[in-house]
Amino acid sequence: MTAMHEAVLLRRRGAKAGDLKSYIGSGGLAALKKARAIGPEETVRILTDSGLVGRGGAAFPAGRKWESVRTAKDPIRYVVLNTDESEPGTFKDRVMIESDPFMVLEGLLIACYAVSATRAYIYVRGEYRHVAELLAKSLRELQQAGHLEAVGPNGAALEVEIRRGGGAYICGEETALFRSIEGYRGEPMAKPPFPTVAGLFRKPTVVNNVETLANVPDIIAFGAKALRSRGTERSPGTKLFSVSGSVDRPDTYEVPFGTRLSDLLELAGGGKDLQAVLMGGAAGTFVFPKDFDLSLSYEGVAERHTTLGSGAVIAFDRETNLWQVAERLGRFFAHESCGQCVPCRVGTRRQHEMLQALAEGHGRGDERGLLTRLSQVMTDASICGLGQTAATAVRSLLEAESAGLLAN
Amino acid sequence: MAEGFTILIDGKRAEARPGETILDVLRREQVETPTLCNHQHLTPAKTCRACVVELKGSRPLVASCERKAEPDMEVRTDSERVQNARRGVFELLLSQNDVSTAPGLVSQAEQLGAVPDRYRGQKYERGFFDDNKLYVRDFDKCILCYRCVEACGPDVQNTFALTVAGRGFTAGISAGFDETLVDSACVFCGNCVEVCPTGALMDRREHTLRAQGRYDESQQDVVQTTCSYCGVGCQLDLHVDRRRNEIVKVTSPDQHPITLGFLCVKGRYGYSFLEAEDKPEEAVKGA
Question: Which of A332, A338, A345, A382 to mutate to test the interface with B (most CBs of B within 10 A)?
């Protein structure tokens, strides 16, 4: 059986994408209106009941974030839309915005209203210039039509600021992102305190991924059940996957949680003679055909010791030397490490050097043992998710190699 | 004052006070904990990761220098995971840095059983800078602990001449856009030199004497005096080479209530007049 591409978030993808009139004509902005009618508390309650979890990779319950900021003592709060999509093999947030900028922005406005945000920031990946321009244009249209009025605290108009990144992967990490907006070097900070307590400018902050906020309007408009009508009990809703690599139709696919990986691959016109896929991007793990029947849900991937991460699915055929792929991943992390902590700064470099030796076939023989040892140090002792996951794919490759799963 | 509470360290109860870090408690309990970036008068930079501990409920290890103690926390310092991570930090640094003037780093590495040549690869080579009269910067020795950045910035001097530039393995301390110190915002207080744990920043005179094989702490006396340049009253410790009756370095005690070990350019470097009593023209030439 082949899974169906089920366009819910992406239902407006196509000719009329980004047209405010047709957005409103097809039910757009009804959720914002409803949120304002039922008030912040009820809005957050619906979101919490829906079971929506963050789509940026960490899968944190969105309702809990909002509730925590909504009830914060500090009157100054921020909402940040994390559009710093930088995970290798991930392009679903870009497609989401290109397809329906207003649904994402409506989600942002609802978030701001629900937590009484004094200001919203949209942090856009530096290379996504056209995305930043599209968001700016769409925001302008919303503002001119008066839709930002009274979304801010005490009936004030909401102020939204768009910031473009400078090309650093690490600035997608929420605390590094805050530092970047504040004008500092993009370096992650220690958590706790978590952003909901002390985030941007040390103020209570909701930071949500694009896909997370895109889910919000339907949930508010149609109730928590709208999300729960699709997906699994523990992973309600649909998920965007960026499928690329050795497939015939690389694209962004939207499928309900619980869809089998093999069905997603088939949807993308691949999956017949694959050696492996890299699930979740550079910070994810390699998955081999014996696990292609896994259920694409948070519980399903946990069962197979992999991750949905950012929703990246990169397919590799049997011709590919996966150690060369690992070398590229190693180079990526070494380049993107901010340099703050020792395990990541020096560790990603050493890891890349050893992967280079393995990929080029001139290793000294002790690389595999050292990589395993190093991966533990980086995973345990690094400050942030970058260093903590920089060895995940390598470790999964080492295990697969011992199990005889590599094609060459 | 708020009530104290207890936390568990390796299964044993230990008293903690509000506001204290886990490291504060570990030190009071005399649990040996390696540290590199931590400095008693600076904000925890939590960058070196030498002091990491296992904390129940936290997936990654946490930096004990930065994490505040909370009631009933369960901390482990004796687990293999902690030892492996700490050893790893030192092994990684030993694989990249010149540690010839960092005895503290070397001895802590030895205590942890770190293997110096565990990892091989590219050394950290950011070069040697000798661009002013007062101190030199040998960045091959820099472990990027951020102490100098903090001392130059909001923790001590509020000059903000030093920052970290670049990314990953090539990140390094920079004065502005890699300007010379003279062209930068540096005011030559030398407080970065004071806090540097590896000798990457070193007073020029000490560096010169070391290069000549003439720097020998066992041949130095410490003479206490009070700085005469202004009315603040900073205590100065003059480190005098008794063989030549020559001042080799000026510091201030790190527990001195006025200075906490920090000085200004005059107190730290303006001592050459003492050696040129009858030659005022010599005095203005600097150290």
Answer: A345
